[in-house]
């Protein structure tokens, strides 16, 4: 086994722990996923939280997230999603095991966490400062295998409504990232589904949400009746990555087949 990393995404927590979204109590659902990680994963090196951590971007939601992450006993690092309040997160974190570092160097691996939030928009943007930061990191550790992490996919996943809300400047990202042959993977949230695309020989993965899932390959918004889950990754010395999804046993909440958005 290499370095074991866990990705947890799109928790959409509320200040009110009793609140539901599309029939799902997002805290209960998050806890079910967390408990599965706790029961099944040993020797976690670190956890990546890939955005939309709070639905109402409230202080109480972020504080409760930190509290709920504690039992996993591993450092967790985050990128913001479109629903997050970065200024608030920067005031609250680091707290407990949620840390704020954006460049992680572990053995011969480098993980770079970028901010793809476009202020006031659902779609994403990697602005010039983020793209420069990525380049600076890649140039600083040319011998390290690299994983780049942000919220909005820089490609289409095949659902028209969602593809209008992905990264708005994907071309710029793809003009830069493939120049660095040590980029092994791009890891994403936002799409509430398991997805893999390979772009310029770089494998890009998204991960199920810890609450509700979006049905793949739909013109319009539709939920999928599948349980929430997380992604595990094993980083090998030679740059290979093994990865997969684990889901909890059943949907947490009441599946809303008529949901039209949220
Ligand atoms: Fe989300």
Which helices and strands occur, and which strands form pairs?
Elements: E1 3-8, E2 20-21, E3 24-25, H1 26-40, E4 44-50, H2 59-69, E5 76-79, H3 86-92, E6 98-99, E7 103-106, E8 109-113, H4 128-140, E9 145-149, H5 160-163, H6 170-176, E10 183-187, E11 195-199, E12 202-206, E13 213-214, E14 223-224, E15 229-235, E16 241-247
Parallel strand pairs: 1-4, 4-5, 5-6, 8-9, 9-10, 10-12
Antiparallel strand pairs: 1-15, 2-3, 7-8, 11-12, 13-14, 15-16
Which structural class do the helices and strands define? alpha/beta
- What's the Cα radius of gyration? 17 Å
CATH topology name, in short, is Purple Acid Phosphatase, chain A, domain 2
Bound molecules: fe (ii) ion
H-E string? EEEHEHEHEEEHEHHEEEEEEE
Discrete helix count: 6
Largest sheet: 6 strands, mixed
**How many extended strands?**
16
In total, how many domains does the architecture comprise?
Answer: 1
- For the termini, the CA-CA separation is 40 Å
Strand arrangement within the widest β-sheet reads 6-5-4-1-15-16
CATH superfamily: Metallo-dependent phosphatases
**Coarse morphology:** globular
